[in-house]
């Protein structure tokens, strides 16, 4: 079965992402309703398949980065739906006379007349809808635009963020003793460590507050939560009487984890990727893989669990996982 | 007695009749002889043997050798300096009996740390009876690391221990970290850290350890006969092939295999004994043993003589 879609791996360039971005947003709002109205011609799945109860999701996050991720993830979900749909529809293919276009954009109004095969990742300049071939079979391979490694689908697994470490400068010198005495949930042991350790319950985080006014906030599960928690700590310090500001908030480290759901042959992996891997069962049961691009350290375990750390932005974690997934699939344990 | 023939890169002397013949050196007589016709081509060749033979029970102060210790050219930076010896006559001592000229220090200040480390390496290797080739390899590794200066902040002993570990691995006879810990004052954690740093600094890598690397050493430390050792090797290898012990350290698997083999033979060993020898906790052996116990009949070699049959093996 020829995979009809050219699949986008997350290591594609940002340009690709941006063009996808714009085209996708167009499609979101133009393709769906009109395609449904055309009678008599069976419709290949547009962006939102009917009957699944899905509606185009409005973009919620304030972070511009996460918009990209959201869309990537949406694409991945849709691809899976696509493939399911495609399998169903190939059975009906003999009956259907389908007009197929090599790309699906031309997303302007009249596009609704020609139901277009949804192709999530082609970026060629769209031929005009009128020039679609008349007798395509569903098995006609699309011209892959992004070079796809054979049989590489995006894994469909999304690493979950487990910890975010961020720093912020409160901009004034602090008296740790008064903070420790007056604030709740604060501990200060100057002989052991020269900072106040403060905890808040929502979001569940811990902060180290130093006398220079700098603060480290750990334990949050998302960038927004980390920022919110840091602001809460700054407010606590402010309420204690210090002229606290919120300068240079920066996320220093992000940790994510996921499960590839199959056991992995670590010995094979260390043999082939010697310059990146370090596997010493005497020292640590997992393989430590230092990826160069993006610069992420992955801990890979025999059970199939993977921990990714060292990222400054969420996209690096996703990209690193998409890079490692085909490699791990190659070292799947067969028994 | 003819010594080994030297292959001259620039043949300065050749036999006039046989220019292609490789001359044989007879160092006792100081001759270079053509093997084809027996012509003595070069004579009065300087004897490079030692001038005197010294024995340990001779008066040690009267060592007539004028050349000193053998050089260590690969390691120290060429030891061609000389030292002023201790005085022998009465004039060299002042009124209190102290020698007047006391400068025997700072002979190689740049290499002092390195020589100290070599001494330490030799001591450590001696404790676990490592052969000279491993010690030489360790010295070489240490010299490379020391000259690179990328690990300059680390304790020299830690780097020396890690070099010893890497040398054992490279020679194909790995020692466990715990064994190196036992002869060194450095903690396992620090040795592990230095090990990873050295591999990165020298841009080398080492092979993965396998269960068979340790079998002969552990079994002979436990005084187990050869059949038990071979059986244990077979069990451990089969267990890894059948993937009964995913994610377990090869040491633990080897230990469990030794336990199973010894319990099935006449020479039984307890988990505690095996754990003491290998530096593995006996709960670890128990865990690995539980994983291989269900497939015990498949793991034994076919020609093994059971003293205790397979179904009577202890089940923990």
- Class derived from helix and strand content of chain B: mainly alpha
Task: Work out the radius of gyration of chain A.
Answer: 25 Å
Q: What's the total number of strands of chain B?
A: 3
Radius of gyration of chain B: 28 Å
Compute the separation of the termini of chain A in Å.
Answer: 26 Å
Roughly how much helix do the residues of chain B carry, as a percent range? 40-55%
Helical amount of chain A = 25-40%
Number of helices of chain B: 11
Spans of chain B with pLDDT under 50 lasting ≥5 residues? 1-5
Largest sheet of chain A: 10 strands, antiparallel
| CATH superfamily membership of the domain at 211-312 in chain B | Cyclin-like
Provide a brief overview of the structure.
The complex is a heterodimer of chains A (335) and B (316). Chain A is built from six helices and ten strands; from the N terminus they run ααβαββββαβαββββα. Chain A is of the alpha+beta class.
Question: What attributes characterize this protein structure?
Answer:
heterodimer; A: 335 residues; alpha+beta; 10-stranded antiparallel sheet; 30% helix; disordered N terminus; B: 316 residues; mainly alpha; Cyclin A, domain 1; 3 strands; 42% helix; zinc ion binding (chain B); EC 2.3.1.48 (chain B); zinc-finger (chain B)
Question: Helices, strands, pairings?
Answer:
The complex is a heterodimer of chains A (335) and B (316).
Chain A: H1 14-37, H2 64-92, E1 160-169, H3 176-182, E2 186-188, E3 195-200, E4 205-210, E5 214-220, H4 223-239, E6 247-259, H5 266-272, E7 277-278, E8 287-291, E9 296-300, E10 305-311, H6 314-330
Antiparallel strand pairs in A: 1-5, 1-6, 2-3, 3-4, 4-5, 6-10, 7-8, 8-9, 9-10
Chain B: E1 24-26, E2 31-33, E3 40-42, H1 112-127, H2 132-148, H3 156-170, H4 177-182, H5 188-202, H6 212-221, H7 226-241, H8 250-264, H9 271-278, H10 282-292, H11 296-299
Antiparallel strand pairs in B: 1-2, 2-3
Helix pairs in contact in B: 1-2, 1-3, 2-3, 3-5, 6-7, 6-8, 7-8, 8-9, 8-10
């Amino acid at each position: 079965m020829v995979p009809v879609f050219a699949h986008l791996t997350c290591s594609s360039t940002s340009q690709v992402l941006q063009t996808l971005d714009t085209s996708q947003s167009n499609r979101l709002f133009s393709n769906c309703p009109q395609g449904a109205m055309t009678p008599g011609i069976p419709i290949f799945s547009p962006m939102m398949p009917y009957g699944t109860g899905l509606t185009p999701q409005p973009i919620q996050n304030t972070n511009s980065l996460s918009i990209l991720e959201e869309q990537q993830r949406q694409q991945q979900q849709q691809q899976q739906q696509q493939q399911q749909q495609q399998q169903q529809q190939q059975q009906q293919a003999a009956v259907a006379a389908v007009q197929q276009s090599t790309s699906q954009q031309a997303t302007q109004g009249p596009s609704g007349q020609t139901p277009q095969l949804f192709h999530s990742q082609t970026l060629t300049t769209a031929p005009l809808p009128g020039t679609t071939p008349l007798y395509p079979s569903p098995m006609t391979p699309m011209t892959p635009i992004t070079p796809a490694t054979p049989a590489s689908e995006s894994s469909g697994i999304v690493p979950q963020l487990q910890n975010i470490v961020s720093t912020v400068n409160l901009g004034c010198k602090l008296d740790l003793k008064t903070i420790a005495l007056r604030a709740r949930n604060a501990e200060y042991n100057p002989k052991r460590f020269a900072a106040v350790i403060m905890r808040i319950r929502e979001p569940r985080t811990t902060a180290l507050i130093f006398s220079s006014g700098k603060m480290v906030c750990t334990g949050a599960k998302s960038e927004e939560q980390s920022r919110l928690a840091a602001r809460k700590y700054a407010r606590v310090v402010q309420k204690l009487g210090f002229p606290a500001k919120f300068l240079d908030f920066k996320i220093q480290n992000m940790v994510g984890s996921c499960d590839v759901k199959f056991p992995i042959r670590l010995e094979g992996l260390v043999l082939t990727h010697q310059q990146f891997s370090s596997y010493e069962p005497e020292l640590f049961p997992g393989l430590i893989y230092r990826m160069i691009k993006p610069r992420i350290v992955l801990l890979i375990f025999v059970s199939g669990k993977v921990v990714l750390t060292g990222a400054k932005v969420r996209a690096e974690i996703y990209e690193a996982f998409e890079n490692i997934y085909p490699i791990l699939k190659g070292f799947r344990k067969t028994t | 007695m003819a010594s080994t023939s030297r292959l001259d890169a620039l043949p300065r002397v050749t036999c006039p009749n046989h220019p292609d013949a490789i001359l044989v050196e007879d160092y006792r007589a100081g001759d270079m002889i053509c093997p084809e016709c027996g012509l003595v081509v070069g004579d009065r060749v300087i004897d490079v043997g030692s001038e005197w033979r010294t024995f340990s029970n001779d008066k040690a102060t009267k060592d007539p050798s004028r050349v000193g210790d053998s050089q260590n050219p690969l390691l120290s930076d060429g030891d061609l300096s000389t030292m002023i010896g201790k005085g022998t006559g009465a004039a060299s001592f002042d009124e209190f009996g102290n020698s007047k000229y006391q400068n025997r220090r700072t002979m190689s200040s740049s290499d002092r740390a390195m020589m100290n480390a070599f001494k330490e390496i030799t001591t450590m290797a001696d404790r676990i009876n490592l052969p000279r080739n491993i010690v030489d390899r360790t010295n070489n590794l240490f010299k490379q690391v020391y000259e690179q200066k990328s690990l300059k902040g680390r304790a020299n002993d830690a780097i020396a221990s890690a070099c010893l570990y890497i040398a054992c691995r490279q020679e194909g006879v790995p020692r466990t970290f715990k064994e190196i810990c036992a002869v060194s004052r450095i903690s396992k954690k620090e040795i592990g850290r230095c090990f990873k740093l050295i591999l990165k600094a020298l841009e080398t890598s080492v092979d993965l350890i396998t269960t068979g690397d340790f079998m002969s050493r552990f079994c002979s430390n436990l005084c187990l006969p050869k059949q038990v050792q071979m059986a244990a090797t077979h069990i451990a290898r089969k267990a890894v092939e059948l993937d009964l012990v995913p994610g377990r350290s090869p040491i633990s698997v080897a230990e469990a295999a030794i336990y199973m083999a010894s319990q099935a033979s006449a020479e039984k060993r307890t988990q505690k004994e095996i754990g003491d020898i290998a530096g593995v906790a006996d709960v670890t052996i128990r865990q690995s043993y539980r994983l291989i116990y269900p497939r015990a009949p498949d793991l034994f070699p076919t020609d093994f003589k059971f003293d205790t049959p397979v179904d009577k093996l202890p089940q923990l």
